[in-house]
Amino acid sequence: MARDISELVSKLTLEEKASLCSGLDFWHTKAVDRLGIPSVMVSDGPHGLRKQDMKADHLGFNESIKAVCFPAGCALACSFDRDLARELGETLGDECQAQDVAVLLGPAVNIKRSPLCGRNFEYLSEDPFLASRIAGSHIAGVQSKNVGTSIKHFAANNQEYRRMTSSSELDERTLREIYLAAFEEAIKEGRPDTVMCSYNRINGVFAAENERLLTKILRDEWGFSGYVMSDWGAVNNRVEGLKAGLDLEMPSSNGVTDREIVEAVRSGKLAERVLDASVARILEKVFKFADNRKEGNFDLEKHDALAGRIAEESAVLLKNNGLLPLDPAKAGEVLYVGQFAKKPRYQGGGSSHINSFRVTGALKASAEIAPGVRWVEGFKTDSDAEDPALAAEALAAAKQAKTVVIFAGLPDSYESEGYDRAHMRLPENQNRLIAEILKVRPETAVVLHNGSPVEMPWASGAAAILEAYLGGQAVGRATSRILFGLANPSGKLAESFPLKLEDTPCFIDFPGDGKTAQYKEGVFVGYRWYDKRKMDVLFPFGHGLSYTSFAYSGLKTDKTSITDGETLFVSVDVENTGKREGKETVQLYVRDTTGSAVRPVRELKGFAKVHLKPGEKKTVSFALDKRAFAWYSQELGDWYAAPGEYAVEIGRSSRDIEASVSVMRNTSQRLPFHVDLNTTIEEILADERTAAVLKPMLDKMEEMFKGGGGEAANEAITPAMINAMIANFPLRA
Predict the structure, then answer these.
(1) pTM greater than 0.85 (yes/no)
(2) Average pLDDT of span 400-408
C-alpha cells in the first residue's frame, strides 16, 4: 500500500518526531501507536542472524536464538563469487522475514589495512573493488526479500584500538580511492536501506557528525536515499549529528537525546525541516518492511547445507605438492592433529557471534565420507604453552601415519571485536609442533582456521596448506570434502599474506598513538604496497590453487583506443586443461603507464568465476568504463584518467599475469597546471599548454651554457649536467 510519508510527518508532534530518531531499546525503533507507526527490529549479521529474544546487548554476552552461522566475511570474499554472495543474502533475507527482523546489520566492508585489526574476520578484503562488488551482491540479495541492510562502518574504521575516539588521518585521494570506494559501488548498486556510521573521527571530525561524509558525499554525490544509523554508542553530539545527516541513534538513549533535539528545535539551533527529513527517511524504510511482511524461511537444515557449500567455494588451497586430494580408501593411514579437527574455530567474537544450531568438525565429517581417520590432540588451543605429553603423543602417531593433517589456527582470544591482535603469529605451541611433525612426516598438510593472515615459518616444509578461514558452522564438512577430493577448491585470497608483520604497509603507524592513526601509506594498501615495492610475499592477493588446471587464450578488446564516454569491452577464453571439473576465477587488472601520478603497479578492476568441465572452454567478458582507469585528483575534486597508454591484464593473482593487451585513452580533460615563479623548466616543458611559450627562452639558455672554456671546463661541465640544471631551474632564476 502506498503511504504519504510527508502527511504522516506533518501529524507528528515535535516530541514524537524526536523520539523516532533514537532506539526504543537495544534492537528496536520506537512506535507511535496513535498514527499506526510500528516498532521494527534490527539485528546483527551479516553472516548469520544474531537475534536476541530476551536480554539484549551489543557484544553478545547474552544468548541469541539458534541460527545458522555462514562463513564470515573473510571467507566469503575469497569465493570471488557475486552470485553466491547474492544467494547468501537472499537466504538471510528469508530468515529475517521469518524472525520479524527489518534490518540486518551488515555487510561490513572496511578495508583490511593491517592484518592486526581485531575485526578483520568480518571485513571482506584489502581491495575496494572486490569488497564493494561482493557487498553489493549481498545487499541486493537481502533486500530482494524486502528486508533492509546496513552497510558498515562508514568510514575509515580500520582498527579496534581506541575506535570510539581515535581520528583516522588521511588525504582525500586515499580516502576516495581506498576507503570510500569499498562503500561507493556497493551503495550505488545494492542501494542499501541504511548505512551505519563508524565510531571514529575522520581527520578530526566524528563520523557521526561529519556532514561532508553523511550528506555531501553519501547523499548528494552517491544518491543514497535511505537513513543513516549510528553504530551502537557512536553518537558524540546528537544535535550536530542530526544536522550532519545522522538520522537514527542506536541504541536507546533513554530519552536524553530526544529531549536535546526538542530543545534545539525550540531554541532555533536546529531547523525543524532537518528533523522532518530524518524522520521521513526512517519512516519510509520502516513501512517498506512493515507493509511487505512475508512468511519467510528459517529452514535450518537447508541453510546449513548452503553454509557448507559457501565454505567449500571460499576455502583457499595455498600450497599443494600433490599430497591432496587424499584417497578415501586409505583414510586409515591418515592422522588428524589438533583440537580444531573436532571443534573448529569457525567464527569471530563480538557483535556478529552466532548461536549456531549445529557445528560440524572435520573429524566427524571425515568419518562419514572416509572412515578410519585417526586423531590426536597435539596441543592446547587455549594456551600458547607446549604440553610435552600431547606433543610426544602427536610425534609418535605422526611417525606411524602415512599422511598427517594438522588443524591449526588462531584461538578465540587472539582476534575479536574490541581489540586488535598483538602480533601476526600462531600460538608458539602450534608452530613448534608443526615444525617437529614436518621433520618426521613431510607428507603433512596444514589446515588453517583464522580470520586474518598469519606468519608461517614452516610453510616451505609443508606438503599442502589449506586456508579455511572462519568458514562457518559447516566448515568441517567442507574441509573434509576438499581434503578427500569430493570438492575441488576454488577460493582465491582476498588479501595478501606477507612474510612477516614488519613488511606490512602500516607497520610503523598502526594503530597510532591512541589519538590519531596516520594513514601514511596512502593508497598503497595490501598488494598495491607489496607489488609497488617488489617485495616477496608468502602468498599474493588473488592466489589460490585447484585440483585441475586452467589455460588462458584469446585476450582481446573491442577497440584499441577509447575516450571518456566510451566503454571498453574485454574478453578472454578459459579452458579446463585438467582431469577434474572445477572453477577458476579470472582476474582483470588495469596498469597505468602514463606517468600522470604515482599509482599502484596494477589494480583489480574485474573478476568472474567460471565453472568448467575437463576440456571445456568458455569466454569470459568484462566492461571497463572511465572509472576503471582513473585515479582521484584532489586538484580536480574528481576522478581523472590521463591520456596515454594503459595495459589491461588477465591474471591468476596480482603476481601471476597470464596475458596483457594495450589500449590508448584519449581525453580532452586536463589537470589544472598552476604556474608561478618557482615552477621549473621541466614542469613547463612537460605540459603541452605551456611548452611552446617557453621554447624561445630555453634556446637562449642553451646558448648561454655552450662552453667556450678549455678542456678542464668541458670535463667539469658536461651536457648531461647542463640539461639537468636547466630542467631544474625555476622561472625566477
Answers:
(1) yes
(2) 98
